[in-house]
Amino acid sequence: MSEQRTLDLALSILDHQLTDDEGRRCGRVDDVELAGDLESGLTVEAILTGGTARRGRARGGFRRLLRYLDHSAKVRVPWAEIRGITHVVKLEHSAHELRLARHDDRARRIIEGIPRS
Amino acid sequence: MNKIVGVALGVLAAIGGFVDIGDLVFSSEAGGKFGYQLIWAIVLGAIGIAVYAEMCGRVATVTKRPVFDVIRERMGFEFGLGTLIASQLVNVMTLIAEVGGVALVLQLLAGLDYRLLVVMAVLVLVISIWLLPFEWIERVYGFGGLLLIVFAVAALHLGPDWHRMANGLVPHPQGTTNYLVLAYFAVGLFASSMMPYEVFFYSSGAVEEGWTPESELTLNKITAIFGFGVGAFLSISIIVMSAEYFLPQGIDPNTLGTAALGPQAILGETGLLLALLGMFFAVGGAAIDSSFAAAYNLAQFFGWDWGKYRRPRGAPRFTLTWIVVFGLAFLILMTGVNPLYVTEFAVIFSVVAMPLTYLPLLLVARDKGYMGQYANGRLGNVLGWLYFGIILLVALSAVPLMTLTNLGQG
Fold it and tell me: Count of H helices and E strands in chain B?
């Protein structure tokens, strides 16, 4: 997304669904990477999803639980990759190209072993 | 004509979602213990689930967000994670109870070993999910669940006391001294009507079917009111039948088999068969709903692709999740745990998860920023907050009542 926009990060971006160029759901906005400072203004450089981006949002027992159960890797998606924001955050390229939803590929290999999948 | 068929099928699906093993267990036992006294708890619960189901269907239609999207986006990551953990525990407990219930019904029908029938129950449910399209799952199990109408026929044969039934619509204890047990069953009946898996499933279905405000909001309203209304009618029929048949004989109908004896005594073998088949489909449908609710919740929280409309390979982690929760339920049932105990635990603990689910839904449904012209009106807000208050009260009292009454045994 190239144009300058003012966004309410908490309401419009954070925790929203990510979809790729084919409309496939491929994660959530777990965190954002900001540049600049409060005086000159902050800009969003990238959105972060999975792994430590997600664990960083949790505290105490929740954090320990995620560390134990959630082994996904953090993926950085540059802001320029965002095609549009509606009820979801739409991306320009496929989940595969952006290295998102890689666990889906592993799960698919298991599911494809079952007839009529 | 298509619209009428659509409405009828939607109503059917909602009936299937309303009557599950929790309703069967609590209704038959409440009727056998307290007669007509607790009919009000079912009516209260049915209005509550209709209010919140209408809200979640409207939110899903307008914003294209199912309930778990709403919970995470509106309340944040940690609140969402807490709600996810609580609701997944309840979903798995519910699934154990429902699959165990299907096995118990099969045992009554076929008389084979219970553990073998657990295997059969899991296989039948998993294969029907795998092979049937979404709408056919709803139709087969929804239509089959309607066989429970045999309880209404049996109740009418027994000649219900309409005056006492009307009295039962107003909460006031009559001729009982065990107020704690009465309160426990009131909480159980209310909670089993409002199990959160119903809204997880309903709202995700609305998103999957691509509902739009122009064409489906009326359908949503009718489905919520009539579907859950007819479901409540079936539950009340079970209470009435129990009150008229078991209470005078001093029988406590605390098993599924005993509950089915009522229609048998009045309508013969056909009555028993219809009751058992109705239970099989109603409880089986609820098992599918709760397994999907678990998969929907996890997928929506983490942003995975989800949906029964996609082929299993199109939403692989979603598919693996419902398979894994069925496997988990199977393993736990094979230890010999009594599914009827699990039912009571699932219903009572679902109350604790209810405020976490219903508050974000209410906040979004009344928010004009999200919903525009489709936000709650005055009536929706009043009913929403009123029911949220009731849910909080019930949530605070459920576990103490369960402990103090030893699961309603006094």
Answer: 18, 0
Instruction: List, in order of start, the domains of chain A with CATH numbers.
Output: 9-111 (2.30.30.240)
Q: CB of A25 within 8 A of CB of A18?
A: yes
Report CA torsion sign: B3, B9, B11, B13.
negative
d(CA B117, CA B150): 25
Most A CBs within 10 Å, among B61, B77, B88, B123, to test the A interface:
B77
Contact B313 A111 (CB under 8 A): yes
Asked if B127 has any chain A CB less than 8 Å from its own CB, the reply is no
Contact A49 B303 (CB under 8 A): yes
CB-based contact (8 Å) between A18 and chain B? Answer: yes
DSSP code, position B372: G
Please report the domains of chain B, with CATH numbers, ordered by start residue: 2-404 (1.10.4160.10)
φ, ψ of residue A25 in degrees (nearest 5):
-70, 130
- pLDDT value for A81: 94
**ipTM of predicted complex:** 0.92
Name the strands in the sheet holding A88-91, side by side, starting at the edge strand that comes first in the sequence.
A25-28, A17-19, A88-91, A82-85
- What's the predicted TM-score (pTM) here? 0.93
Structure tokens at B333: 């049932």
